[in-house]
Write a structure and sequence with these properties.
By secondary structure, the chain is an alpha+beta fold. It contains 5 helices and 6 strands; from the N terminus they run H-E-H-E-E-H-E-H-E-H-E. Strands 1, 2, 3, 4, 5 and 6 form a 6-stranded mixed beta sheet that branches. Helix 4 links the parallel strand 4 and strand 5. The longest helix has 21 residues. The protein is elongated. InterPro entries: Bact_OuterMem_StrucFunc (IPR050330), OMP_bac (IPR006664), OmpA-like (IPR006665), OmpA-like_sf (IPR036737), Pal (IPR039001), Pal_lipo_C (IPR014169). Belongs to the Pal lipoprotein family. It is found in: Cell outer membrane. It comes from Desulfuromonas versatilis.
Amino acid sequence: MKKGNILRSMLIVAAAALLAAGCAKKPAPGTEMAGEAPVVSESPYQQEVTGISEQAVSEAAVAGQPGYLQGEVAVPGLDRIFFEFDQFTLSEQARATLAQNAAYMKANERVQVRIEGHCDERGSDEYNIALGERRALAALNYLVSLGVPASRLSIISYGEELPLEPGHGESAWSKNRRAEFKALR
Protein backbone atom coordinates (compact mmCIF):
# COMPACT_ATOMS: atom_id res chain seq x y z
CA MET A 1 0.00 0.00 0.00
CA LYS A 2 2.81 2.41 0.86
CA LYS A 3 4.61 1.61 -2.44
CA GLY A 4 1.37 2.37 -4.29
CA ASN A 5 1.18 5.85 -2.73
CA ILE A 6 4.79 6.60 -3.57
CA LEU A 7 4.30 5.44 -7.17
CA ARG A 8 1.11 7.50 -7.45
CA SER A 9 2.88 10.59 -6.08
CA MET A 10 5.74 10.13 -8.56
CA LEU A 11 3.26 9.84 -11.44
CA ILE A 12 1.47 13.02 -10.33
CA VAL A 13 4.78 14.95 -10.12
CA ALA A 14 5.86 13.65 -13.55
CA ALA A 15 2.50 14.59 -15.08
CA ALA A 16 2.70 18.07 -13.53
CA ALA A 17 6.24 18.54 -14.90
CA LEU A 18 5.15 17.50 -18.39
CA LEU A 19 2.14 19.81 -18.23
CA ALA A 20 4.27 22.74 -17.10
CA ALA A 21 6.81 22.11 -19.86
CA GLY A 22 4.08 21.87 -22.47
CA CYS A 23 2.56 25.18 -21.41
CA ALA A 24 5.80 27.18 -21.58
CA LYS A 25 5.05 30.60 -22.95
CA LYS A 26 6.46 31.32 -26.37
CA PRO A 27 6.82 34.91 -27.55
CA ALA A 28 4.18 36.01 -30.00
CA PRO A 29 5.46 36.48 -33.55
CA GLY A 30 6.67 40.01 -34.13
CA THR A 31 7.09 40.91 -30.44
CA GLU A 32 10.76 40.08 -30.19
CA MET A 33 13.12 43.00 -29.64
CA ALA A 34 15.47 43.72 -32.48
CA GLY A 35 18.42 44.24 -30.13
CA GLU A 36 20.63 47.00 -31.35
CA ALA A 37 19.68 46.57 -34.97
CA PRO A 38 17.64 49.43 -36.43
CA VAL A 39 13.91 48.94 -36.75
CA VAL A 40 12.75 49.13 -40.35
CA SER A 41 9.17 49.46 -41.46
CA GLU A 42 8.69 49.31 -45.17
CA SER A 43 5.58 50.43 -46.90
CA PRO A 44 3.58 47.51 -48.34
CA TYR A 45 3.36 49.36 -51.63
CA GLN A 46 7.04 49.76 -52.36
CA GLN A 47 7.83 50.46 -55.96
CA GLU A 48 11.16 50.74 -57.65
CA VAL A 49 11.99 54.39 -58.17
CA THR A 50 13.83 55.58 -61.20
CA GLY A 51 14.59 59.04 -62.41
CA ILE A 52 15.38 60.78 -59.13
CA SER A 53 17.07 64.01 -59.97
CA GLU A 54 20.63 64.00 -58.77
CA GLN A 55 21.46 67.40 -60.15
CA ALA A 56 21.06 69.22 -56.85
CA VAL A 57 23.15 66.83 -54.72
CA SER A 58 25.35 64.12 -56.12
CA GLU A 59 26.03 60.88 -54.28
CA ALA A 60 29.71 61.72 -54.14
CA ALA A 61 28.87 64.95 -52.30
CA VAL A 62 27.06 63.16 -49.47
CA ALA A 63 29.08 59.93 -49.31
CA GLY A 64 31.06 59.72 -46.11
CA GLN A 65 28.88 62.16 -44.20
CA PRO A 66 27.36 60.99 -40.92
CA GLY A 67 24.18 59.04 -41.53
CA TYR A 68 24.90 58.31 -45.15
CA LEU A 69 24.02 54.82 -46.35
CA GLN A 70 24.49 53.46 -49.83
CA GLY A 71 21.39 53.95 -51.97
CA GLU A 72 20.12 57.03 -50.16
CA VAL A 73 20.32 60.58 -51.35
CA ALA A 74 19.90 63.68 -49.23
CA VAL A 75 17.67 66.06 -51.14
CA PRO A 76 17.67 69.83 -50.56
CA GLY A 77 13.84 69.92 -50.76
CA LEU A 78 13.52 67.57 -47.79
CA ASP A 79 14.56 69.16 -44.50
CA ARG A 80 15.04 67.46 -41.14
CA ILE A 81 12.84 68.17 -38.15
CA PHE A 82 13.75 68.29 -34.46
CA PHE A 83 12.05 67.10 -31.28
CA GLU A 84 12.04 68.05 -27.62
CA PHE A 85 13.68 65.77 -25.06
CA ASP A 86 11.90 62.43 -24.72
CA GLN A 87 9.11 63.56 -27.10
CA PHE A 88 7.77 62.50 -30.46
CA THR A 89 5.09 65.17 -30.82
CA LEU A 90 5.50 67.59 -33.69
CA SER A 91 6.19 71.23 -32.87
CA GLU A 92 4.81 74.08 -34.97
CA GLN A 93 8.24 74.43 -36.60
CA ALA A 94 8.33 70.70 -37.38
CA ARG A 95 4.85 70.88 -38.92
CA ALA A 96 5.89 73.83 -41.09
CA THR A 97 8.97 71.92 -42.26
CA LEU A 98 6.89 68.82 -42.95
CA ALA A 99 4.45 70.93 -45.00
CA GLN A 100 7.41 72.02 -47.15
CA ASN A 101 8.58 68.41 -47.43
CA ALA A 102 5.07 67.35 -48.46
CA ALA A 103 4.98 70.05 -51.14
CA TYR A 104 8.31 68.79 -52.46
CA MET A 105 7.07 65.20 -52.55
CA LYS A 106 3.84 66.18 -54.30
CA ALA A 107 5.87 68.05 -56.93
CA ASN A 108 8.23 65.06 -57.35
CA GLU A 109 5.82 62.14 -57.53
CA ARG A 110 8.44 59.51 -58.31
CA VAL A 111 10.50 60.15 -55.19
CA GLN A 112 10.21 57.64 -52.37
CA VAL A 113 11.46 58.73 -48.98
CA ARG A 114 12.80 56.93 -45.97
CA ILE A 115 12.20 58.78 -42.72
CA GLU A 116 14.97 58.16 -40.20
CA GLY A 117 14.24 58.64 -36.49
CA HIS A 118 17.15 59.63 -34.24
CA CYS A 119 17.65 60.28 -30.53
CA ASP A 120 20.25 61.81 -28.26
CA GLU A 121 22.54 59.59 -26.23
CA ARG A 122 20.42 59.59 -23.07
CA GLY A 123 18.29 56.50 -22.43
CA SER A 124 18.86 52.82 -23.10
CA ASP A 125 19.50 51.52 -26.59
CA GLU A 126 16.12 49.77 -26.67
CA TYR A 127 14.28 52.87 -25.48
CA ASN A 128 15.99 55.09 -28.04
CA ILE A 129 15.26 52.68 -30.89
CA ALA A 130 11.58 52.75 -29.92
CA LEU A 131 11.57 56.55 -29.52
CA GLY A 132 13.29 57.03 -32.88
CA GLU A 133 10.66 54.83 -34.49
CA ARG A 134 7.86 56.89 -32.90
CA ARG A 135 9.45 60.09 -34.20
CA ALA A 136 9.75 58.72 -37.72
CA LEU A 137 6.18 57.41 -37.54
CA ALA A 138 4.86 60.79 -36.33
CA ALA A 139 6.51 62.46 -39.34
CA LEU A 140 5.14 59.78 -41.70
CA ASN A 141 1.60 60.15 -40.36
CA TYR A 142 1.72 63.93 -40.71
CA LEU A 143 2.99 63.70 -44.29
CA VAL A 144 0.18 61.25 -45.09
CA SER A 145 -2.33 63.66 -43.53
CA LEU A 146 -1.00 66.32 -45.93
CA GLY A 147 -1.72 64.09 -48.94
CA VAL A 148 1.57 62.25 -49.48
CA PRO A 149 0.76 58.60 -50.32
CA ALA A 150 1.93 56.20 -47.60
CA SER A 151 3.19 53.91 -50.35
CA ARG A 152 6.02 56.40 -51.00
CA LEU A 153 7.20 56.48 -47.41
CA SER A 154 9.06 54.10 -45.12
CA ILE A 155 10.61 54.53 -41.70
CA ILE A 156 13.70 53.37 -39.85
CA SER A 157 14.99 54.09 -36.37
CA TYR A 158 18.67 54.51 -35.63
CA GLY A 159 18.11 55.45 -32.01
CA GLU A 160 21.29 57.15 -30.80
CA GLU A 161 23.63 55.38 -33.25
CA LEU A 162 24.05 58.17 -35.83
CA PRO A 163 24.36 61.48 -33.98
CA LEU A 164 24.36 64.64 -36.06
CA GLU A 165 26.47 66.38 -33.39
CA PRO A 166 28.84 64.10 -31.44
CA GLY A 167 28.88 66.18 -28.24
CA HIS A 168 27.59 65.45 -24.75
CA GLY A 169 25.63 68.58 -23.80
CA GLU A 170 22.20 70.05 -24.52
CA SER A 171 23.55 71.86 -27.58
CA ALA A 172 24.50 68.53 -29.19
CA TRP A 173 21.54 66.59 -27.83
CA SER A 174 19.01 69.06 -29.28
CA LYS A 175 20.49 68.51 -32.76
CA ASN A 176 20.46 64.73 -32.38
CA ARG A 177 16.74 64.48 -31.51
CA ARG A 178 15.52 64.55 -35.08
CA ALA A 179 13.95 62.91 -38.10
CA GLU A 180 15.80 62.95 -41.41
CA PHE A 181 14.34 62.44 -44.87
CA LYS A 182 16.30 60.48 -47.47
CA ALA A 183 15.23 59.87 -51.04
CA LEU A 184 15.63 56.21 -52.01
CA ARG A 185 16.84 54.95 -55.34
